[in-house]
From TrEMBL:
This is AcrR family transcriptional regulator. InterPro entries: Homeodomain-like_sf, HTH-type_TetR-like_transc_reg, HTH_TetR. Gene3D superfamilies: Tetracycline Repressor, domain 2. It comes from Deinococcus metallilatus. Signal peptide: none annotated. One of its GO terms (molecular function) is DNA-binding transcription factor activity.
Length: 201
């Protein structure tokens, strides 16, 4: 008679990662508000107390997922940032193309609509905004919503391409890059105080 070996117990970090993977898949599949702890336990074939030993709520899981996605996105786009303020549309084109590779992040950012979800989404956007802020011209801070508009425009274009509403191509990246750069230049010019930047007579 052959005795089967007991299932291998995952190390704590691996179990945590497994829970987050399942949570992300369910959030994207059903929407954040449509997922509860019993759903995660059923998906993983484990008990609710096991889930609760790692996370106290689905909101805590969402925060952990967005933190990890932000860190991964930052690794991809950080090398582009020194050139974003150079005035060339190609810089934002490259940033758009990088966002097109972030399928799970884009879907996750649009997987809910309730107050808890919106709060975590806002925290993510604020974190990205803070990191990108150093790459824009110094006078960008005079326009309080400028950077958020840039981020949301790039996000919307990438999401539209993901859903097939726009072609996911280099031409899209170039077009969005030129669009964002043109809008950025106009907004910065309008935010400039009268007389500033003009040569003295």
């Amino acid at each position: 008679m052959t005795v089967s070996a007991p299932p291998k117990r995952l190390a704590s970090p691996d179990r945590r990662a497994q829970i987050l993977d399942a949570a992300e898949a369910l959030f994207i599949e059903r929407g954040f508000e449509g997922v509860a702890m019993p759903d995660l336990a059923a998906r993983l074939g484990t008990s609710r107390p096991t889930i609760y030993s790692y996370f106290t709520s689905t909101g805590e899981m969402l925060a952990a997922l967005l933190d990890a996605r932000l860190a991964a996105l930052w690794e991809r786009i950080a090398p582009l940032l020194p050139h974003l303020a150079s005035g060339t549309p190609q810089d934002f084109a490259r940033l758009t193309r990088e966002l097109l590779h972030e399928r799970e992040l884009l879907l996750l950012l649009h997987s809910g609509g309730g107050p808890i979800f919106r709060a975590h989404r806002c925290t993510f956007l604020q974190g990205l905004e803070t990191r990108l802020g150093a790459a824009l011209p110094p006078n960008a801070e005079r326009h309080p919503h400028l950077l958020r508009l840039v981020i949301l425009t790039l996000e919307a274009a990438a999401l539209a391409a993901l859903h097939g509403d726009l072609p996911a191509s280099d031409e899209l990246g170039a077009a969005v890059g030129a669009f964002v750069r043109g809008g950025l230049d106009v907004a910065l010019a309008r935010a400039q105080p009268p007389g500033e930047g003009k040569a003295e007579s």
